[in-house]
Amino acid sequence: MLDLLRKIKKQFEERNKTFLVLDIFFSGLTIFIALRLLFVSISALSRSDVSIDPSTSLMIGMLFCLGLTFVVRVVEMIVTRKKEYFISLLLTTVFILAVTVYMFLLEYIL
Questions:
Q1: Is 39 helix (H, G, I), strand (E, B) or coil?
Q2: I need a labelling partner for 105 at 20 to 30 A (CA). Which of 7, 10, 48, 96 fits?
Q3: Integer Rg of the chain from CA
């Protein structure tokens, strides 16, 4: 347990504070929206007449915030010139944002 706390403290000291705050903010927002999506979905299961389905909007918002979290990490890696896992993180970011745009286009445009 103490080893884990030392590791977290070491990462906190090494990271740029601006990127850390943005990372925590978007991660927290993603978790908040995911929990809200869970409660909305559970309440929709108990009702038989669902006229407006906000779960798709919440899903798009959650994926967008998750994509922004990964964008912050990619930008931080570019700024600090870290190359470990850069390509996989960049591909993951592009994939999440592409899925978000695709879902947005299906729901609101098409």
A1: helix
A2: 48
A3: 17
List, in order, residues 6 or more apart from 89 with CB less than 8 Å away: 70, 73, 74, 77
What distance in Å separates the CA atoms of residue 46 and residue 64, rounded to the nearest whole number?
Answer: 28
Concatenate the DSSP letters of all residues of the chain into one string: -HHHHHHHHHHHHHS-HHHHHHHHHHHHHHHHHHHHHHHHHHHHHH-S-----THHHHHHHHHHHHHHHHHHHHHHHHHHT--TTHHHHHHHHHHHHHHHHHHHIIIII-
Of 86, 57, 63, the closest CA to residue 74 belongs to 86
105 secondary structure, DSSP code: I
Tell me the pLDDT tens digit for each residue of 52-103: 577 888 999 999 999 999 999 999 999 988 888 999 999 999 999 999 999 9
pTM given for the model: 0.83
